[in-house]
Specification:
By secondary structure, the chain is of the alpha+beta class. The protein has a single domain (19-211), classed as Cyclic phosphodiesterase (Cyclic Phosphodiesterase, Chain: A). Helix content is 24%, strand content 31%. It has helices at 29-45, 75-85, 116-135, 206-211; strands spanning 19-25, 51-52, 60-64, 67-68, 91-100, 108-114, 138-139, 149-155, 162-172, 174-181, 186-194. Strand 10 (174-181) and strand 11 form a beta hairpin.
C-alpha cells in the first residue's frame, strides 16, 4: 500500500501539518556504511540503548528552513528558488569525534561530529543558503551557531560520551533540500544542487622547473 500523500499548503506563510524542510549534506555510500558501522560499534561497546538512524536516513543538517518574512510564493517553491541561487565550492567532509548531545524531547542523540576544517567550510555554505532564503522571504536565525554532525542513534538512556574516532570522510559535491515528516522518521529529497569542484592542482613539470633554475657558478678547484 502506498503512503498517503500529505498536501503542501498553497499559502506562502503556512507549513502543511506534519511537514518540515531543511537543507542537508548526504554522505556517499561508503561514508554511510562507515558511519552506521561506527554507530553500531559504539552501541555495543558502550551498551547504548536506543533506536539507530537507518543507513539511508543518515545526513548532516546544513541549514533549517527560515521563518516567513515577506514570503510571496508557496513555501516549497521559495526554498527551491533560494537553493538555485547558491554558488559555493565543494569540500571534503570529515567526521572525527563522537559525543552525546543534550536531551531534546527526552531523547539523547548520539552523533559523530565534524572537524574544524569541515565546520568552517560547511558554515560558509550554510551562510550562503541562509542569505538566499532571506532574499526569498525566509529568515534563518542563529546562522553562526553551528556544530556540523551526523546523528546515528536516538535514545533515552545514553551516558555522556565524548571521544575521538577514526576519521570518516566523503567529498561534498552537492547539497539537498529534504522534506521530513514529524513522527515518521521519513525523509524525502526534494531537490539537489551541485557545488563547484575545487580546481585540480596542475601537474608539476620537472623539466620546465629545472629550465627556470638560475645558472650556477662554474666549479673551480682554485681557492
Amino acid at each position: 500500500m502506498e503512503a498517503p500523500v500529505i498536501p503542501i499548503s498553497s499559502n506562502p506563510a503556512e507549513l502543511a501539518a506534519g511537514i518540515n524542510y531543511f537543507f542537508a549534506l548526504l554522505p556517499d555510500d561508503a561514508a554511510r556504511r562507515a558511519i552506521a558501522d561506527m554507530g553500531e560499534r559504539f552501541r555495543k561497546s558502550h551498551r547504548l540503548a536506543g533506536s539507530p538512524v537507518g543507513v539511508d536516513n543518515l545526513h548532516l543538517t546544513l541549514c533549517p528552513m527560515g521563518k516567513p518574512a515577506g514570503l510571496r510564493q508557496p513555501l516549497e517553491d521559495a526554498l527551491l528558488a533560494a537553493a538555485g541561487e547558491v554558488r559555493a565550492q565543494g569540500f571534503v567532509a570529515t567526521l572525527d569525534s563522537a559525543m552525546r548531545f543534550s536531551a531534546r524531547d527526552e531523547q539523547f542523540p548520539f552523533v559523530l561530529c565534524a572537524d574544524g576544517a569541515t565546520t568552517a567550510a560547511a558554515l560558509e555554505l550554510r551562510k550562503a543558503v541562509a542569505a538566499a532564503q532571506l532574499r526569498a522571504g525566509l529568515q534563518v536565525s542563529g546562522v553562526s551557531s553551528f556544530l556540523p554532525h551526523v546523528a546515528v542513534l536516538h535514545g533515552q538512556a545514553i551516558d555522556a560520551i565524548e571521544e575521538s574516532v577514526v576519521a570518516i570522510q566523503w567529498r561534498v559535491s552537492e547539497f539537498v533540500l529534504i522534506r521530513s515528516f514529524f513522527g515518521q522518521c521519513r525523509y524525502e529529497v526534494v531537490g539537489r544542487w551541485p557545488l563547484t569542484l575545487p580546481p585540480e592542482p596542475e601537474p608539476l613539470d620537472l623539466l620546465a622547473e629545472m629550465a627556470n633554475l638560475p645558472d650556477l657558478p662554474a666549479w673551480s678547484d682554485e681557492e
